[in-house]
Amino acid sequence: MLTSPLFWTLTVGLGALFGFANPWGQLPLLALLLPAALAAFGLAAPSPWTAFKHAWRIGTVASLACLYWVYWPVMHYGEVNWALALPVPVILAMAMGCYHGLFGLAAYAANRLSPVLATLYLGLAWTVMELAQANLLSGFSWLTLSSAFVPWPVVVQAASVIGAYGVSGVLATIAFGLVFGLRCKASLTVSLCCVLALVGFGWQRMGSYVETSPAHTVAVVQGNIDQSIKWDPSYQMGTAEKYVRLSREIAATANPELIVWPETSMPFYFQDDTPLRAPALELARTGKAALVIGSPAYERVDGPGSFVLFNRAFLLTPGSVVSNWYDKEHLVPFGEYMPLGGILPLQKLVSGVGDFVPGQNRQALQSGNLALGVLICYEAIFADLAQQRVEQGANLLVNISNDAWFGATSAPHQHLQLTALRAIEQGRYIVRSTNTGLSAFIDPLGRVKLAGPQFQEFAAAGQVHPRTETTPFHSIYSWLQLGLVALAAVFAILIFLGGPRPGQNQSLR
After folding, report:
1. Which CATH code is given to the segment(s) 216-467?
2. Which of 130, 155, 327, 480 has its CA 20 to 30 A from that of 246?
């Protein structure tokens, strides 16, 4: 029996808040309340509009519970009054709720299928929904259901075969089977089979995992630079000297062959021959470790603008000035660039050095035996970018970020768990360096081996093993999407040929 929509909307919102990563405490199973409630209300709705409305409302509240942190950078760094900043996450959540509303329509259509087929169909629909979130309108795949289960690595190992979105679909299927299990025991069997499949595969993969290459020592440095002063010219030299000091300290104790600094760790144009870059260059010339550093960059072009800006990661190898670099490809709308900037009379929501353009990268950054696939900031939440880095030869993934934008909110914790999914999908270690946390080392099983504190200076070394073998997910990546399209077409035909069963919409009310 469904109680009032308001009760379940608030319950699912709390479930999303504490089911996904947050600073207070996480129970992953609570995240399953979202797909379960969307399915239940969609199935019980008397009309398509009611199904969409209830699902949209539930999805909006759940999204707001997870994405409330958007107000923080807008208010604190975007020079926007709090009264104008607070509605921003609400608007974003309402937009994300539209995806859930469409899923509610899919659940309404499931009334034309048998309970078992409907359970499987809704699992597929959930995967399609997450793929749509990742690709439409620049993409924002932050609310990936499987990310909530990263603290339980055995549950998400199947991402090495079917990807994070596929695992999300299986997890959602478990919830749907329980919903249909109110009137069909066969659907409960589907849920049980999904649980056994996920856990059994995870247990087998984790139990048989072995390292296949020598260990390499890599270090991360977290400068803990306050975002409000980061771009102040009077602090720039001090920032460079702090990163050099922390790097020398960890180099003296751990002797790493690579040291990774965060995104825009050098808050100036490092490519310019100025005194500001001298400390880092001296460290590269005299030290034994290669350096990955973040900095804005520019290239001069013909035309009215005269130059374009990039969010860049430089690789400095021992004894050299600059070996190579990676330019960020997937930019943050309204943060790093303005969508339809020539049409919309708006400014960026957060301040920075200017509007960036996407980079064009063709190969991994080579440092000795390490081929680095760089992911800058929230590029780590997109499966296709990690896929491209490995296709370009990366045997180690490096994520540099500046999560200082988000303060002590849920965002840095969610970002870390989303990043861990890329490690499982691609079977690669990930070295993650951030300005204020959470810096970490993640193994190919998605286990966070070492995570530093937030809002403290931090330098640590870890062991990584470069890997050249690819996962099944990497090998069949493009075929998976074609398979989803084919399955969706099959279910569309079944729904079209099927017919509503009398009273079904009322049976869950």
Report:
1. 3.60.110.10
2. 327
